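Message: Just now I want nothing more than another pair of eyes on a protein record. I am handing you a single protein, as its sequence and its fold in token form. As I understand it, each token names a local backbone shape. Take your time, and here it is.
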Amino acid sequence: MSDGQRLDSAPVSTGKGSVFAAWEQFVQGEDHVRGVRPEVLLSWHRCREQYRVDPHLTEAPLAAAHSDHTLEQDVVLTELGGLAASVAREVEGRNGIVTVADATGRILATWGDQATVARAADANLATWSCWSESTAGTNGMGTALETHGPVLIRGAEHWCQAFHGWACAGIAVRDVVTRDPIAVLNISCWRTPLPEITGRWLSHAVSQTQGALKGRARDSAGELIAAFAQAKGRGPAVAAIDTAGKVVIADERAGLLMGVPAEAPAVEPAIRWHTSLPDLIRVAEYASGRAAKDPDWVGSTQIYTHLGDEPTPVTVRPVFFSGQLAGHLIMFGNSDDGQPCPSAAPMMMSAMSAAKMSMRRIVAVRGDRMVLLRLPEVSFAEADGNDVWLSTDQGRLRASSAGLDKLTHELAEAGFLRVHRRYVVNLSRIREIERGFKGELFLVMDSRGGDVVPVSRRNTPAVREALGL
């Protein structure tokens, strides 16, 4: 089913019926309400518990006075503007307006029926106002920036009661490499149903815009491959990665270190290699931020790879294409070049701590045998009564020592953290973070089964601090 079909087939029951009753209950603190679409309920949870948006807000706040846009973002915004102007002619007779906003939710332009434009201004649904979910609650633009695909918000599904008279549909244009939002296109109608083909309009606009982004991503990959060819042979191992930390090409040694095929160029963003090295992804994010401010920046740090117990030194060199960052060359091995990257990986330990960690062992039991586990092999520990079970690269094993408190104390300085009365996790083995309906956190580990570990409310602040959230 296409994005457009999914949007057009969404249920229509909004307004002063069951959705409004559920909204009233939720605003008053109720968690379990009926008759609300899951994606809307998730948004309400974010608005109430994470962003703390006042549901009785009567207008959106003004956006920040200044927001930097890259050349690529400006191109996307200009193209969306042309598409929005053509769609506006279709909704003028339906009390409709079309808006384009940037990745922060700041409206840059508005088109449509002039009477509706004036009415929208009463709620600051106008240029230079901010409609991110964190400032204006659940709405077409802000919620589209938080999710993937088209978003439909009608009537009482809006978090702020003052906006219940609107029906809105938005979709974000996202970077094809990082998947970060670049802009958002939105259609809003005042007390009038959205046109049935709204979803197809939005999806067509995004696919048309992202076609150009994919072309640019291919060109950037070509530049990375050319830089790789020049650097190959100058050191023990070299690879080229994009701005999201995915591998475009690697030589034989780098391929072994990163766990990806060697000499296999991946030009298309959708088929680039994932290394499953959390440190490398964090290094890429840090390096991209530094290179955006200083194109001449070169950095160095240490990361854990798929070979060896100790971290490997790496040097990071940004690669640019037509003035925009294309990605980075990663050179493995010692180098005197580059500035240190102390904050490239918030969870990365110092070299001394890492070496200490690699030498330490956890003793587990398998039948009548004792198994000596290196700490990086352990994903998390789980208490079951007085027993402690370890999720490891060798499967689920029982720890030789009893009691999770003792294990927590022993591993406190080795990158492990108590996240729940029953769980201690290896911070370097966290792959993803999920948020529950009540705002609780769940850690998706990089174990074979993709185990999910809950975080208790009591331990949430410590987890947030440790992960830099």
